[in-house]
Amino acid sequence: MKNHIIINKKIKSFNDEISVSGDKSISIRCVLLASQSIGISKIHNLLESEDVINSLKSIKKLGIKYKKKRDYHLIKGFGLNGFKTNKKINLNAGNSGTFARLILGLLVNSRNEIKIVGDKSLSSRDFSRVTEPLKKFGAILSSNKNSLPVKIIGTKFLRPINYEEKLGSAQCKSAVILAAIKTPGTTKIKAKKSRDHTELLLKSLGFPIKVKKNKNFDFIEINGQNDFRGFNYNIPGDISSSAFFLVLTLLSKESKLKIMNVNVNKSRTGIIKILNMMNANILLKNKKVYKGETVADIYVKSKKNLKSIKCPKNLNSSAIDEFLLIFLVAAKSNGISSFKDLSELNKKESPRLDIAISFLKKIGIKVKRNKDDIKIYGNSKLELNGKFIVENFKKDHRVFMMSCVAALTLGGEWKINDKDSINSSFPKFLKLIKKLGAKIN
Question: Does the annotation mark 16 as catalytic?
Fold first, then answer.
């Protein structure tokens, strides 16, 4: 079966509404925390992607039972000491950095060696940012040159720590939080701003976690070894998945779109703030708060006169997964857009900053780079007529989906490889694109 698609026609005008898949970050956290609860958790709209399925398979290896029902999942946990780790186990995280890093936090009290493995892309990413703080709890961790596979042997004698997270990484922060819930005493974290789904979910479960915020940092205290009951959770739509449809609509002609019931947690909506600064008109309506998360319907319409941006650095962390799309909008805008301190982009599933620059040059856009800063010289009249091939050697799902958006809005004849990469995060992406009228072969 072919693992590529062909796009040779721009998408026509559309006026529609869609629902995207459940939030991946929350899906994985729900699976992990349900595995630590006492009793049965009922989770609606769990994202059924490879990353989440690997998470379910892994907790099953650790002795946790789950069932898929018609429109929800049931997970039966046995408390904070409920994992069965009395023998050596290998857990396959696939492509999921979120699962691989967070599960390590829950294994700090494992009785035997657990090995975390992943695919080629994940195995090239830095895990020292997680293994080093987890060692301070008393667990023993070893890795392959700071990458996967990582082996962990826990301890009965966990000790609370003080930890400063300086990178703005929610994965690192969350790994420490999950280790702390198993640890007696109070663990204190000073964390650079990043997404806060773990903290909000724990608060909704009544777990004793305190969070104080200032402009740049969150100060978190966790009182460990407090059990919590199984829970019900209805996962909202994923803002990162929605982002592809925001930009598709924005760059298409005379189009409108409503995306229903999306998680618009302010630590995730950097793309909306940035695009609105570029003269988009993206609106959030029907806002509500669900278990600490803000959920809303997103309204977007096409826009002709997009303008360049000097992107504020403080929005980087809240848009870190969407910069490929933001760069595409900058390419179709009037003027020179500048972005700074984007080193974290090259530490994702692929070196996304490098890939973005190469992609923009391929479609005729001038780009200047100075280390982790770039300038994009936009062309509001950009229209493509040639043939383009996207190899996607790292099989990055976001590179594939961004390339689809570019092909459908800029024109040209495109062959986009590694279609299967979307299975890690957004399996129904192509189905939704086709619902809006896209012609894809």
Answer: no
